[in-house]
Amino acid sequence: MAGPGGRRRMSRPPELFPLFADLETLEGVGPKTAKAMAGLGVERPKDLLFLLPHSGVDRSRRASVRDVVPPAVVTVEVTVGSHFPPRQKGRPYRVAVKDSALEFQLVYFHARGDFLLRLLPTGQRRIVSGRVELFDGIAQMVHPDHVLRPEEAGDLPEFEPVYPLVAGVTQKVLAKAAQAAVARAPELAEWIDGPLKRREGWPDWHAAVQAVHAPESAADLAPAAAARARLAYDELFAHQVTLALARMRARRGKGRASVGTGVLQRKVLDSLPYAPTGAQSRAVGEIAGDMASGLRMNRLLQGDVGAGKTLVALMALLVAVEAGGQGVMMAPTEILARQHLEGLRPLAEAAGVRLDLLTGRDKGAERAAKLRALAEGETGILVGTHAVFQKDVQFHDLRLAVIDEQHRFGVAQRMELGAKGAAADVLVMTATPIPRSLALASYGDMDVSVLDEKPAGRKPVKTVMVSTQRLDEVVAHLARAVAEGRQAYWVCPLVEDSETVDYASAEARFQHLRAALGDCVGLVHGQMPPAEKDAAMARFVAGETSVLVATTVIEVGVNVPNASIMVIERAEIFGLAQLHQLRGRVGRGSAESTCLLMYQAPLSEGGERRLTTLRDTDDGFRIAEEDLAMRGAGDLIGTAQSGLPRFRVADLERQSALMETAQSDARRLLAEDPQLESPRGRAVRLLLWLLDQDRAIRLISVG
């Protein structure tokens, strides 16, 4: 079948067919088992190759049960003695056996006697393997895992792998199916870079697959074991090749060179009371360089709370205007869009550039006037919500789109926005510091600029841990602060009262604080209609309320410089990154700020580690690394919205260095061989098929 440009669409290579057959073609797998295996993410034989054992059992032969200290697993040859069927229902069936030095019993519950007589004929020798325990001084093996004839002894590995299970699949069935899948694995050409493979001492793919399913000791089960590390690298590499192809595709979209003159940027810098940080200047340089090139920019600007992303974004937007075009800045909510407008307005005025806001609220004549100014190019910079996606919004010459808070916008929306300006550059900003390994997993298709310095004049926030027993003191402290004209956030973990959960609900806390402090207390939570929420936020921003009781809806972006106190109730149940984001809402003005972490004693070990980490550092990247180490990757960015790939073998927390290698290797390979036509390129295509990276295969085939 011909694809675009008459190219053949690529079809699955024949050598992989056996691995993509039905599961039922494997020995011992019937329709029921096949259906149950789907619960393990196993749908075809090749999935079994990557379902690795998580532990193992030592099944090496012993002369006698005497040689181990029960309870322990032991494998021993015995002579079968008498059978003792149970006298009454529900009692166990016992079989006396004798090894070279000791008599003991095999014990079965709910077993059929005729089956056991066939399995263990009196007078014959058998090899039994299972867990031995002492019961009233007599050694017993309850339900042996294996009973074999002496001539079958070779079937039992000395170290037996243990696989993850799901209802309806037993260890025996899974191990047998995995072995059958391994037997089908073909020898494949090498896709890993030769020098890298030699340096790491990794085996070939085929050998690695065999080795991970036949571990010889616990050391072979560690992520660092050569065979496992190799398969983990394959996975990370396939993922990075896919992202690199997507990036190449995005950049191949012809960009427009937007070369700034520096005139407007200079005006803004001259109007500032401080100099930009080194990190800000570096980021602006990287962005301006991308915009000046003929390729489309696809860059992520990562900065911790308060690292000064707004200034960098404005400088980028001014490059677009200096080059004769327009820029747009998108925010996920109307409140944030208005905030960007407030932040950018004085700077845009200094540069003499017209700035406008477009949200869903704009109607009628006012909206028409804004759209006209935009279409005629009078508006240099537009700030808005996703209302700017609407059909009737036409730009005169859109050069740059800045998107705030990445995970609210999927890749699809990035594309839509790109379509508004035939070749607009895209800059995505996120205030969530992401550890490098995760940034590569989620945004490997983008180039990354990092703001890792705090601008001058930001005072650190004093962070204190307080037990909930001291609630009254905290409220008294708050009353004094409010009397001095300060503002505070009070964050609660949950909205409605639920009988089983003793979290103070926002509603109840609001009533309590109102009784103590009067009507200067406001409330926002997730169940409120958006208009009410906006109104409550607006009253707080305007200073009409002094204390805002809220669930975590405030963590993204709200800026109230006068707010200098943050109380987080039941802080121990929040994630580290979330706590760090919340704390970042204060410390934005000139006042000394405090963050009170209220916890319920006693703290769990994890809870204590989170709160002390937060108390001792305000470096978002360090906090994110610690969070990753404690919680794991999926949790960190909230699996639902993370779009984080599900790796079967690779472990992002422990193998982050492999991810970096995989990214540079993938980008280098595609720079040299963009169509994957070289011998190594062809091998990489096999890897992409094997790991279901169909998206990548489509990207090559329409190439």
Explain this structure to me?
With 703 residues, the chain is α/β, with parallel strands linked by helices. It is 39% helix and 17% strand. The protein is built from 25 helices and 22 strands. The strands form 4 sheets. Strands 12-13-11-14-15-10-16 form a 7-stranded parallel sheet, with helices on both faces. A 6-stranded parallel sheet has the order 17-22-21-18-20-19, with helices on both faces. Helix 7 packs across helix 23 and helix 8 packs across helix 11. The longest helix is centred in the middle third of the chain and has 27 residues. It is globular. The N terminus is likely disordered.
> What portion of the residues fall into strands of 2 or more residues?
15-25%
What best-fitting shape do the alpha-carbon axes yield?
globular
Strand order of the largest sheet: 12-13-11-14-15-10-16
How far apart lie the N and C ends? Answer: 15 Å
> What average pLDDT do the residues reach?
83
Give short descriptive properties of this protein:
25 helices, 22 strands, single chain, alpha/beta, seven-stranded parallel β-sheet, six-stranded parallel β-sheet, disordered N terminus, 703 residues
